[in-house]
Each structure stands twice: as C-alpha cells, then as structure tokens.
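Quick question about two entries, pasted in order.
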Amino acid sequence: MDLPYNTRPSAEDIIAAVPGLAPYALPAVVLAPEPGEPTIHQSSVGGPLLWPADEAWPRCDVRDEKSASGTPATAMVAVAQVYRKDAPGDWWPVGKDVFQLLWCPNVHWDPPTPHADVSPVAEIHWRNSADVRHVLASPPLPVRQEDPDYGYTPVPCTLTPVPLIDFPYPQTLPDGELVKSVQE
C-alpha cells in the first residue's frame, strides 16, 4: 500500500536533520482505508456499527433538498466506527472504547447549530463495547437520500491502523530558529 504517509522520511531521519524537533515528536496513528466488508467488531468507514438492539437508531428531521418540511424523518447512515485499540490516546472519554459517527445522507443548506452551512447533520456516539449485549441486526434505511454517487453515502472500507511519529506544524513551534530549520 503506497500511501502519502509512507513516502515521507522516517521520524529518525527528520530528527537527524532537525534535532530540535525531538521533544515535539508524538506517537500517532493513521487509519488507512481499504475497500472491504467490515464487521461490527472492526474500525471502518461506511461499515456496520456495534449498535445496541434496544437503542433507537438516529433519525434526521431537518429540512433538506428532498423534503422542505424535514418529514418524514430519515434514518441516518453510518459514516465511521473507530475502536480505541486502533487509535489509542488520551482523547477517549473514560470507560469508552468505541467512537461512532453517523450523519444524514442529505444536503442541509441551513442546518441547526453547531453544524456548518451546506453540510450533513451529524451525530457522535461513544460506547463501551462490553455494554452492547444484543446488536441491532439491520439498521433502518433512509426514506429520502441524495444520490449514492453524491458523496453522503460512504463506501464500506476497513481501517488498518498504521502507527507513526507526528510533528507539529512549523508555525506552532515556539522557537523562531527551529521554525527556520524546519522550513529549510
């Protein structure tokens, strides 16, 4: 897999060229997408979610191009699911090991705050996978939806974690000489 983050110099080579960057090196993970058929137990884009059978599936009733009134409410679609084991870090809420993102598959010209104009209405859910005892077998399908080629219906992909070392943008570094060295 020849991806952009595989083409940059190694972290060791970067630090050898600019030793002052060493204290700013941070572990990171890139989640590399590959077309596939993910399961509920995998990190994925557009795959099935580890969703409790006894929890209502999110719906959107905000007006859009398909319905000026926003009715009937349409089922949201799964966009991403990430397991903590694949993207560890201190940004996870305590006791949660699954991040889920869903959105409405329609364009919203004036969605409610905090959404940006001309964007899908989104919902985020954090879960403890051990709490999900019975999984929803088939989430509801949207009753109104943009054309699948429009871009709001993700293509199912598995996400493979690729660990790497990340560095800050030069303009965020506190030392002007270090910024100059990085830019050179």
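Here is the second entry:
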Amino acid sequence: MTGANGFLGRFLCLAWLERLARTGGTLICITRGADPAEARQRIVAAIDSGDENLSVRFRALADDHREVLAGDVGDPYLGLDRPTWSRLADSVDLIVHSAALVNHMLPYSQLFGPNVVGTAEIVRLAITARLKPVDYISTVAVTALPGGGFIGEDVDVRAASPSRALDASYANGYATSKWAGEVLLREAHDLCGLPVTVFRSDMILAHSRYAGQLNVPDMFTRLMLSLVATGIAPRSFYRLDAAGHRQRAHYDGLPADFTAEAITTLGAQVTGGFRTFNVLNTHDDDISLDRFVDWLVASGHPIERIDDYDDWLARFEAAIESLPDNQRQHSVRPLLSAYAHPAPARPEAQPPSEQFRAAVQSAGIDGFADVPHLTESLIDKYIADLRRLGLLAASPSHG
C-alpha cells in the first residue's frame, strides 16, 4: 500500500489491517522517510491526531500485521533497494495505490512526477514476476468532459477522453495527472492482462466516529470553519428559481470511514478484469450546502443569511480578512474563486455511479447496507473537531 499517511490512506490502512488480522496477512506500507523508522512515524503521526481509541486500535493491529518500508513512489523502483523491490515483486498479492500529491493549485508539470511517474512505477511492480491486482484511488474530476457530460463507470477513459487540455483552471493539473494514471493502468490491462479496480472519489469528508479526524486543508473543512467563524452565509449557495426561492440541490461528499470500507471491500473482491467505480453519494435528498447551514443554525450557531449573493461574498471576504491569523490561514480564503457565483442547483450527483451503488448494496460492507446520506450529526462533528483543534472558539461566536 502507498499513501498510508494520507487522509484517506490512514483509514484504508486501518481497514486493510482489520481485514488482514482475520487471515494472518501482512500490510506492507511504502512511505516517504529517511529510513523505516521515520516512515513509520509519519503514519503514526497521521493516526495520532485526535482520538485515543483510534490510536489504540491501530497499534494493536499494526504490531502484528504491518511492515513499513521507506520509499518514494516517484522514484525508480519506488525508491527501494533492488533486493527489497524484488521481494515485493515475488510475494505481494494486491497493490493499493492511494499515494498522490493532492494539490488543486499546482500545474500538471509539477504533479507529473509523484502522480503519473508514481503510477508507472506501480505498474512496473504489478507486472513483474507475476500479475498483482491494483486498486487505484483516482478522482471524480476525471469524469468531466470538456463539452459537457461525464464519463461512465464502464467506459474506457482513453476513448471517452483521448486527450486533456492543460490550463490554469482550478484543479486542472490534479485531474489531468489522475486521468494519466488511469490511462497507464488501462494500457497495462490491455497489454499484460493486469487486473485493475479504479475508485474515483469526490470530497472525502470527516470520519463519522473518530474525533479530530477531518482533513483541515480541504475545501469543505475550510468552508465550515469560515461560515461559523464569520457568522454569515448566502441565502443559497445555488441559483434561485424564477420566483427567487431556494431549489433542491445536492452535495456529493462521503464520510472517510464509509469510503475506506467501500474501497477495501470492493477492491478485495475483484481479481480480474478492469472495473471503475465513481465513489459518490447519489441520493436525491436535498442535502446540500444550504442544508448544512440550516443544520448549523439549528445547532445554535448565529449565522446571518444574506439575500443578495454578491453582497454576501463581499462581506464574507472582508470578514475572513479580519479573522485571527490562525483562523484566516485555515479559512476558505485561498479558494474563494470557487464561490464567485451561485452554483447550478442539481438534485443529485452528475457523474453516473449506478454500478458503485449496486456493488455497495450487494457487498456486505461492515456497517453499511447502502451508500449513506450525509447527516446533521456529521456537520456537528465538524464543528466539535474544529474546536478540538483550536480553530474555533469553545462556544458559537461571530469570529
């Protein structure tokens, strides 16, 4: 497994340890570090970030079922010495490739090494000595087509999107680097018969149970912090109808614990072929950014709704600038361009994800009979976690 110290990676690591503990298997984690001890500490630091129960459970499993190697996916042979690399080529049964440089502001040229070359090195390992199935963590941004529309789960990405334009638009470089990874894996499957399962995630939200387990730098966490800290929100984040009313809308994110369990369960089941899952919350349930603000208000946070969107945006930006340094640094300030205009009001997820939902319903995933709805308790947990991290005051206030 690569990327075990990442936000999703730590929960994939835990889910695989739980699974391997039942069979006596071993999870081999390749993580950057000067030596295995430093690499191991990077994973431990990611786990030890808020919940003692999580830390205790992880250590109990890791002691008997985990090996950590210091390496770098962007280097030849994953940065490993040749004897170690050859050992992995001979002995590994499955590769989970979740490592990536996730940065929506960097251009493709700066993401090519870690994200594209890194995937090529994974392919090299996967086809050496014997074929090893690969679970590849991609992004739903790959599905968007320039002329509109989305790539389906059973469509060859090379045929649907044979080339990608490089530009300065938000997340263009990251999306293109993950598209390139999918292309490499498709080629390896066609040429060598490599079994591959691609998981295209959208926003991976906080863990629904473990305290402090949220991705502080992501757009969603920054927005939740900013709304509560400034105490203002638009009447709607989406375009109003002709009568000026809010419309049904949808937010595609999924909690990290469900995402990790789904990827681990489905990835373990596929040993042949090439399958792709768009890992999305597809419910037409009117649970959207507007609903999240409703829930925040219901929980006692004094948030004023501003009727005019442009007025809100101007006041919001000014209020963020006046926040204390620590809050301003972790606010949505660097990503405000994403909120320059109200979003289209769509009642459900756009990219097709019927195969993913059907697979979840039939897979018997621990604790989940279906793709979950987002809940008020998860939004409340965001605020509790942000308080735990010292990024919000102990009681609701206006910043």
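Reply: The chain has two domains: 7-204+254-279, 208-253+284-347+374-388. The chain has 14 helices and ten strands. Hope that helps.
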